[in-house]
Amino acid sequence: MLRSMTAFASAEGAREGARWSWEMRGVNGKGLDLRLRLPEGTQGLEAALRERLSKALARGNVSLSLRLERPRDSNAPAISEAGLAAALAALAEIEARAAARGLALAPVSAAEVMAMRGVSESGGGAGDDGALAAVLLSGFDDLLAGFVKMRESEGAALARVLAGQLDEIARLIEEAEGAARARQPEIERALGRRSRGWPRSAQPSPSGLRRNWR
To answer: How many domains, in total, are found in the chain?
Structure first.
């Protein structure tokens, strides 16, 4: 099947406050050149996309872009109750041991407590990112199918144009050959009249005349 290398496809989606839009374009190219533009926070998505694209496409310069809008507070830090309890317990233990040795420690600020390991965590966990990546890939599969279908329809249109041009060339060749066959007796008569005026030794043979004419 003849496939065009030029095509375009786009798609949009939303899930739990997150919104995204895909845009995919393809133009002619000697090989397969993939150019992906993905937002931050989509680790692991590029490798899966390249694998799908390489399986579905063989040639062309293909650009793929993803725009992703997350809820504003999706990346805001949140307090881990267990982490905070462990941090406060550790601070109390440290202060008690320092007091036992007669040492006075400076008060610890809330920012310092938040900076302690395990106290704060991002609003969107790894599980949420993984679920979102799965949804994005599912939507991309539909986008890629539409892109390939457009390539095939463009290729079918090109095939029809090429077939029409080849048929026209064949018709013109046949017409030219018919015209040449129709004029051959006239040409041979004209050459025969000329040959009668030549010396016998210089008169060309009929086969030679046909060969020279051709």
So the answer is: 2
